[in-house]
Amino acid sequence: MTVRLAPLDRADLSRVAELERQLFAGDDPWNESTLRAELDHGNHYLGAYAEDGSLVGYAGISIVGSRLDAEASVHTIGVDPAWQGRGVGRALLEGLLAVADEWHAPVYLEVRTDNAPAIGLYRTHGFTTIGRRRGYYQPSGADAFTMARPARVREEA
Q: What separation in angstroms does the CA of 88 have from each of 98, 133, 135?
C-alpha cells in the first residue's frame, strides 16, 4: 500500500495524540493542545494518509532564522505500528528534509539511543551523531543522541 503525504490537517490532531500515547507511552507523549500549539507557531507538519484517508503517520520540523542563516529541527516522526517497516517514516523524513533544503538549513534532531531503526534511517539520510543527552526523555530517563545533517549547498545555475 502507498501513502499520500500532505500538510497535517488540524482535524487529525486527536489521531496524532492517540498515536503519541501509543508510540511514546513511557516518555510524556504530546497531547492535542501541544500539537495545536506546534501548528499555531508555524512549524511544518506532514501527515501520511492511507488510501482510505486515515492518518497512519505524522512528522514535524521547525525552521528558525532567516534564509541566510536558517537552522531546522525535527520535532517528531511517528508511524502507526501497523504501518511501520513500509517506508512511511522514510517518506515523512524525506518530506521534512525537503523543507529544510528549501531553506538551505542544517538539520538537528534527538533520537533515543536504543532506537536502532530510526538511527539507521537518519544515517542513510546524511545524519551523524554529534552528542548524547543523558536522561533526555522523561519520565523514563532514556538517553538521546543528538544528530545533525549539514545544510545542502545551493547549486548555482
A: 15, 27, 28
Q: Of 26, 38, 34, which Cα lies nearest the Cα of 138?
A: 26
Alpha carbon distance 9, 18 (integer Å): 15
Annotated catalytic residue, options 45, 49, 58, 122: 122
36, 13 contact by CB (below 8 A)? yes
pTM of the model: 0.92
Which residue bears the cell 534511517?
121
- For 111, the enclosing helix (H) or strand (E) is strand 107-112
Q: Reply yes or no on whether 122 is catalytic.
A: yes
pLDDT digits (tens, 9 = 90+) for 76-114: 999 999 999 999 999 999 999 999 999 999 999 999 999
Rg (CA), the chain: 15
User: Which one of 110, 136, 137, 155 is the catalytic residue?
Assistant: 110
CATH architecture for residues 4-149: 3-Layer(aba) Sandwich (3.40)
User: Each residue of 115-152: pLDDT tens digit?
Assistant: 999 999 999 999 999 999 999 998 888 999 999 999 98
Domain residue extents for the chain:
4-149
